UniProtKB/TrEMBL annotation:
<keyword id="KW-0067">ATP-binding</keyword>
<keyword id="KW-0547">Nucleotide-binding</keyword>
<dbReference type="GO" id="GO:0005524">
    <property type="term" value="F:ATP binding"/>
</dbReference>
<feature type="modified residue" description="4-aspartylphosphate">
    <location>
        <position position="54"/>
    </location>
</feature>
<dbReference type="InterPro" id="IPR002078">
    <property type="entry name" value="Sigma_54_int"/>
</dbReference>
<keyword id="KW-0804">Transcription</keyword>
<dbReference type="InterPro" id="IPR027417">
    <property type="entry name" value="P-loop_NTPase"/>
</dbReference>
<dbReference type="Pfam" id="PF25601">
    <property type="entry name" value="AAA_lid_14"/>
</dbReference>
<dbReference type="InterPro" id="IPR058031">
    <property type="entry name" value="AAA_lid_NorR"/>
</dbReference>
<feature type="domain" description="Sigma-54 factor interaction">
    <location>
        <begin position="136"/>
        <end position="365"/>
    </location>
</feature>
<dbReference type="InterPro" id="IPR009057">
    <property type="entry name" value="Homeodomain-like_sf"/>
</dbReference>
<dbReference type="Pfam" id="PF00158">
    <property type="entry name" value="Sigma54_activat"/>
</dbReference>
<dbReference type="GO" id="GO:0006355">
    <property type="term" value="P:regulation of DNA-templated transcription"/>
</dbReference>
<keyword id="KW-0238">DNA-binding</keyword>
<protein>
    <submittedName>
        <fullName>Sigma-54-dependent Fis family transcriptional regulator</fullName>
    </submittedName>
</protein>
<keyword id="KW-0805">Transcription regulation</keyword>
<dbReference type="InterPro" id="IPR003593">
    <property type="entry name" value="AAA+_ATPase"/>
</dbReference>
Amino acid sequence: MTAQRVLIVDDEPDIRELLDITLSRMGLDTFSAATLGEARELVTEVSPDLCLTDMKLPDGNGISLVEFIQQDHAHIPVAMITAHGSVETAITALKAGAFDFISKPIELETLRTLVSSALQLGGDTATLSQAVGQDLIGNAPSIQLLRKQITKLARSQAPVHIRGESGSGKEVVARLIHNNGPRSRGNFIAVNCGAIPPDLMESELFGHVKGSFTGAAADKPGLFQAAAGGTLFLDEVADLPLAMQVKLLRAIQEKAVRPVGGSAEIPTDVRLLSATHKDLAAEVDAGRFRNDLYYRINVIDVKVPSLRERSEDLPLLAAAITERIAREHGEGGVKLDDTALRALANYTFPGNVRELENILERSLALLDGDTITADDLQFSQMTPRSPQTRTRKSDREGTQTWSVEEAYGDLEGYLEEIEKQILSKALEESRWNKTATARLLGISFRSLRYRLKKLGLDE
């Protein structure tokens, strides 16, 4: 098997020698250049599998080499060697297309990890592009651009900020970047920053040691540690409190975290992806988000289009989602007719793809037959109701009123509990005969089976 080739570009002989020895011990063939001109010639001549370049060279800078390789040899990953603490240089390199960066003085273990990750990429970008295309459905120009961005970003370690409306698929994009990159074997840890109580956020992200606070009965690793070797996805990052933003910035800069109550920092190896439905730049202007943190997490900016912005993809997207949901529930051959497609085209989808999935899942659960029509989508029922009370009629108990206040804080849980009670009672009256239960409730057998599975009553 032919050894993989690494091009080392640095005008300091001792640095070139150190890198040569380290990489040779990893079983790699190395080639060295002291100038930008020599490096360009060797890139064309040798076609290395990886290029390591210093920032400052006698006849130019490493950024120029990154741009040259990106333009004519995009399959070759480039890692930049920067001065310690030179954040701006590192970010400039990443924006230019560098795979990653490493700071001087070079830590050999960090170097080995970087090189191993870069060499896992390989040069087959066509296969990568095809894999992304299978999971990102649509042909709208905005989706084609997004697909190209994901393909490129999967081959990088640059921090990426993903922006888009709620339900547009920001986490889908983050997972595609992770799953198709060199960290795909590591964990993908997603956390909604708006869902963690502020007093628990530091412990959740960085972990804590036993006895550090009331209830800390044992050491607990944080999400940074859980994502080691993989990707940490901070969703709704704009919801981070300012005090936590300071600590997150330090963790990113130092590539280390200090658990709550801990006396030492723990090195971390994560790729950071973030997302929000808010305008992060506007949050910075309003003083709600730190400019220096924005600068670090927004190295590459990716826009996920709303469903309204790619309405031409609706038929293809709806068909694919319907097929997936039907398959998950053991069904097959379910399709949408022309009336359903027209109804979808006339709807604005404020909840984007997530709302489309919910509408189709509900329609399929209540469907009698194998064709979804406009009536099955129930758009006519999606109108605001009174904010005060809802009522239902019961043959045995007359009319019962449910107060909205009872559902505050956990509406989904409240509704599920009511549905569980109704289904359980109907099952008991029907002696657990599901066909009779469906008839008693006035719903299809398919709908009953879906609801029982959803609520954990199908055993």
